[in-house]
Every structure is written in structure tokens, then in C-alpha cells.
């Protein structure tokens, strides 16, 4: 029985899983699926690559929203279906979005989606053009009708991630204010809303650190997991090299009632590009987390991440082990632990 508990999340009876390889870990207690990548190139007609995508359990199976780079170079979001959360089939047509009157309302482009269930509604969040890079949102209850919600923020912003429940009766969202290009800066902020339309009370959560792997910028990753120790957050950290950016996966634990406060922040990366599918691709040296499937009965966690902007890959960890590792290697600074207002 786990000492740390996953809260307010039902068990996943058909949890995707592969046991850890024999031997001790050289670093964080997290291991890659031996059959990675789980989604290869040219996965569906008209789509060259799928990566940076999000999945959830749904009606005893799994469903996901996938960043599909079309052969014309424009990214859109496609719906995927799976029996085991490892082998996927995709709708050939991209997701069709409508406004609240049911009329067509398609974004110019859409990429890096997240998918979060709150109560009985699934919320899809992505980056799009709103006269500059900004956050797009939609909701669905059946994965057939996707109704757009007003953009929460002005440009420029990316990497928006919703919390899976309200906190103090407010919806909460992480985001990363940015600029119009491949931003050479970026911190994680949190914002709140009473109705998923009007967003405010923006607070700083955490910024880049002196650690080499996240010394340029950071951004949200998978939706936070509610645990008895706080909100477990898998995020991405970026460093610069003479050959471009490198994206690694980091871990932190946020205060359960005031998530702008960081309780623990791992000074080490949890996963960094090392395998061929992470190091070689359209954009080399990228591990970019977008989703987890987590089982409250066993504490098992499956992390879905984009690899080299070319593939979807899968890694595994156990709640007790990853929380212990983050706490054991935690370094927090004033900008992490303060409430985030200046």
C-alpha cells in the first residue's frame, strides 16, 4: 500500500504499465517503455508526424487529442482511440470545432494540446493564433461535439494546463507568458476563473533555475496530479547549447490549497533526451510531457511525452518513488515559495 495517495481520481483498471528493468536507477526512478516510440511517423493520411499530445481514460478505454503536423506543415488536433493506451488509431479528419451556437469555428492552427476532465466535462487546451500565439480552449462531454470557449489570455502565451478540479471554488490554470517566436525566456504562472471565461488573479509559480537543464525557460506539462503531499507537476525545462535548445522533464510539488507556492522542486531532471527517438527528429533533443494516466489504487503513473517533435513516447514511475525522489533532491528558492505577487 502506498504511503503517498493519489486523491480524487478513480482507479484505472486497465492501466498501461511495464515493470521497471532490473537494477538500480542512475537518476530518477522513471523508466521508458521498451517499445517506444508508441506512435511513429506518417500515422494517418495527410499527417507526417504526431507528438506533444494528451490522453485520458474514457468509458473503460482511452481517448486522446493529438498534435498532427499536416503534410502542408500546418499543425492541427486529431482525435485518437485506444483499447490499452499504447496502440492508437486516429480519425482521419482533424477535430471539428464549433461556437456556442453550433457554427463552424476552426482555429487557424492548433498545437500542443492538453486534455483535462473536470466534473463531467472534458476541456481541451492548445496553442493557436489569436493575432499572435495564444491559448485556445474547447469543451466536450462526448468527444463528438467540441465547443470553443473564449481565449483565456491575450497573446503571447503557451503551455496552458488546467487543474483537474476547482480550488476555493475557482478553476485554476497554469500558463507560460511568452513572445511571438521561439521564446528564449519563460516562467510558469497560475490564473483563476469563476466561470472558465474571465481569468485573473495571476500569480507567479516558478521560473527558470541555475540548474543547466532548465536555465533558459520552463513551461507546464501534464495536468497536475492531486496527492496527499500536494499537486504533483511534471513540467518541461529548457537549456541552450551550441546546437540549439534541449527539452527535459522536471518535477515539482505545489501546495494543495495555494498552488502558486512550490513546496518541493527537484534540482535534477527526471528525464532528458538520451534515446534515438528523443535525440533525432524534426526538432532534436526534446522530451516534452503533455499527459499522465495515473491509478489511485496502485500509485502507478504513465507519462506521455513528445519526442524530438516527431514521435509520442511513454515512460513509467510509481507515486511513492517519484515523490520521494523529488523531495530528496529538492531545492526551492524565494521566488518558488512566495505567494507569487509583487
Plain-language structure description:
The chain is built from 3 helices and 22 strands. The protein has helices spanning 276-279, 319-328, 334-337, and strands spanning 30-32, 47-58, 61-70, 75-82, 89-90, 97-98, 110-118, 121-129, 133-140, 146-149, 157-162, 171-177, 188-193, 200-206, 217-219, 225-227, 230-241, 244-254, 262-265, 287-294, 300-307, 311-318. The mean pLDDT is 97.
Shape: globular
SS-based structural class?
Answer: mainly beta
**Number of E strands:** 22
Helix content: under 10%
| Biggest sheet: strand arrangement | 6-10-9-8-7
Described by strand count, sense and barrel closure, the largest sheet is:
5 strands, mixed
Low-confidence stretches: none
Q: What Rg do the Cα atoms give?
A: 18 Å
Structure keywords:
342 residues; mainly beta; five-stranded mixed beta sheet; five-stranded antiparallel beta sheet; 3 helices; 5% helix
Give me the secondary-structure topology.
Elements: E1 30-32, E2 47-58, E3 61-70, E4 75-82, E5 89-90, E6 97-98, E7 110-118, E8 121-129, E9 133-140, E10 146-149, E11 157-162, E12 171-177, E13 188-193, E14 200-206, E15 217-219, E16 225-227, E17 230-241, E18 244-254, E19 262-265, H1 276-279, E20 287-294, E21 300-307, E22 311-318, H2 319-328, H3 334-337
Parallel strand pairs: 6-10
Antiparallel strand pairs: 1-22, 2-3, 3-4, 4-5, 7-8, 8-9, 9-10, 11-12, 12-13, 13-14, 15-17, 16-17, 17-18, 18-19, 20-21, 21-22
Amino acid at each position: 500500500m502506498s504511503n503517498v495517495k493519489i486523491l480524487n481520481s478513480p482507479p484505472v483498471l486497465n492501466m498501461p504499465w511495464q515493470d521497471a528493468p532490473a537494477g538500480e536507477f542512475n537518476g530518477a526512478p522513471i523508466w521508458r517503455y521498451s517499445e517506444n516510440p508508441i506512435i511513429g511517423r506518417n500515422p494517418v493520411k495527410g499527417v507526417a508526424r504526431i507528438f506533444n499530445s494528451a490522453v485520458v481514460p474514457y468509458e473503460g478505454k482511452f481517448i486522446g487529442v493529438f498534435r498532427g503536423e499536416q503534410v502542408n506543415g500546418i499543425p492541427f488536433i486529431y482525435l485518437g482511440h485506444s483499447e490499452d493506451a499504447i496502440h492508437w488509431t486516429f480519425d482521419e479528419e482533424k477535430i471539428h470545432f464549433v461556437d456556442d451556437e453550433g457554427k463552424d469555428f476552426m482555429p487557424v492552427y492548433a498545437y500542443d494540446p492538453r486534455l483535462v476532465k473536470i466534473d463531467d466535462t472534458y476541456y481541451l487546451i492548445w496553442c493557436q493564433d489569436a493575432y499572435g500565439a495564444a491559448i485556445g480552449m474547447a469543451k466536450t462531454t462526448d468527444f463528438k461535439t467540441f465547443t470553443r470557449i473564449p481565449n483565456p489570455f491575450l497573446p503571447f502565451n503557451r503551455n496552458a494546463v488546467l487543474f483537474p478540479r476547482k480550488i476555493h471554488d475557482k478553476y485554476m490554470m497554469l500558463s507560460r507568458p511568452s513572445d511571438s517566436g521561439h521564446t528564449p525566456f519563460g516562467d510558469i504562472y497560475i490564473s483563476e476563473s469563476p466561470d472558465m471565461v474571465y481569468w485573473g488573479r495571476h500569480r507567479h509559480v516558478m521560473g527558470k533555475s541555475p540548474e543547466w537543464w532548465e536555465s533558459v525557460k520552463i513551461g507546464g506539462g501534464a495536468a497536475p496530479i492531486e496527492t496527499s503531499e500536494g499537486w504533483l507537476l511534471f513540467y518541461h525545462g529548457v537549456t541552450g547549447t551550441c546546437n540549439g535548445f534541449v527539452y527535459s522533464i522536471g518535477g515539482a510539488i505545489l501546495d494543495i490549497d495555494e498552488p502558486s507556492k512550490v513546496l518541493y522542486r527537484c534540482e535534477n531532471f527526471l528525464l532528458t533526451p538520451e534515446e534515438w527517438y528523443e535525440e533525432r527528429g524534426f526538432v532534436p533533443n526534446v522530451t516534452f510531457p503533455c499527459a499522465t494516466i495515473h491509478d489511485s489504487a496502485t500509485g502507478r503513473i504513465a507519462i506521455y511525452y513528445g519526442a524530438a517533435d516527431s514521435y509520442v513516447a511513454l515512460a513509467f514511475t510509481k507515486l511513492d518513488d517519484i515523490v520521494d525522489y523529488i523531495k530528496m533532491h529538492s531545492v526551492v528558492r524565494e521566488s518558488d515559495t512566495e505567494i507569487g505577487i509583487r
